[in-house]
Amino acid sequence: MPKLSARVVDDLADLGALAGRHDPAAILISGAVAEPALAGRVRAWAVGPPGEELGVAAAIEVTPGRWTASVLCLDPRAAPVLARVLVASPARWLSGTAAHVEPVLAQWPGSTALRLPLRSSNHEEVVRFPEHDPRIRPAGPGDVAALVRLYGSSDLELLGPALGEAVERLVADHRVVLAEVGGELVGAIRCELRSPRYDWWSGLWVAPEHRRTGLATALHRRAGEVSVALGRRAVGAAAPSNHMVPRHQPAEDVWLEAAVPAPPPSWRARARRKARRTWRRTGGRRVLRSPR
Fold it and tell me: Which CATH number is 200's domain given?
């Protein structure tokens, strides 16, 4: 078999179709292709010829300058190539189901990952819990200012002046669910990406003084209701209270979050580092080598 290499994917529509067939494992890829993320840029690479891909890697710019990556490792032979591509990509964080991420992590000795259960809601689950928590409701136009203040000190702060517009768009599309106690915003969750079949809910936040009161569970449940009403399934990674996932949990139901190793320094960086060491060692004196 010829040596495998990665190629840049220019046709994101084909990438979205491939990723969509593997949802929710590829929800970050299919969702980013189906609609622009908050920052809007996607870079993708594939291993194997078109129509016969062995693996896919995508880097998604969630907010300006902050990239996250996801992979579809359809053949273990593609894992080393995907690992090299991700190291060279702008993404410094990798997310995805264990079935696809673990083969890539194995290429980075010493790498560890946070294991989280992958939550998914469907119509049957929503019908099973029909009662509504009075503290939970969908966000409306009047909540934009409070949400901007909340997200302005969170992971969306890098949006800067565009934060207000992004929050208005999320609220208008019914993609924010919040918790309110005594007229005060004390929790929220947002739908960041939508693929044709799934909604990816993330950014869960609950005020410290209101944690362990069932608000997080209620927010996830209402998010599921919003998605089911639109004919989709809600999916998202949720950390349990003890941060443990049962060992018998199928790899398709375990979500991994891991850091992507930094790329090795270029030859110019290595040369500058060597020159600085020589300068410090010689006290700034020029060192002349004797002719051989």
Answer: 3.40.630.30
Nearest to 216 by CA among 119, 113, 101: 119
**For residues 56 and 73, what is the distance between their CA atoms, to the nearest angstrom?**
7
Q: Does one domain contain both 129 and 154?
A: yes
User: Which range of residues forms the domain containing residue 222?
Assistant: 120-233
Give the pLDDT of residue 244: 42
pTM: 0.77
Tens digits of per-residue pLDDT, 71-128?
Answer: 999 999 999 999 999 999 999 999 999 999 999 999 999 888 888 888 777 655 555 5
Percentage of residues in the chain with pLDDT exceeding 70? Answer: 83
Does residue 153 lie in a domain region?
yes
Summarised one tens digit per residue, pLDDT across range 245-282 is 444 556 667 888 899 998 877 667 677 777 777 777 77
Tell which residue, 26, 6, 227, 19, has the closest CA to residue 118.
26
Instruction: Judge contact between 220 and 238, C-beta under 8 A.
Output: yes
Tokens 């009075």, residue located: 134
CA dihedral 266, 256, 65, 267 (to 10 degrees): 0
CB-neighbour burial class of residue 26 (10 A; exposed 0-12, middle 13-18, buried 19+): buried
* 62 and 204 inside one domain: no
Amino acid at 127: V
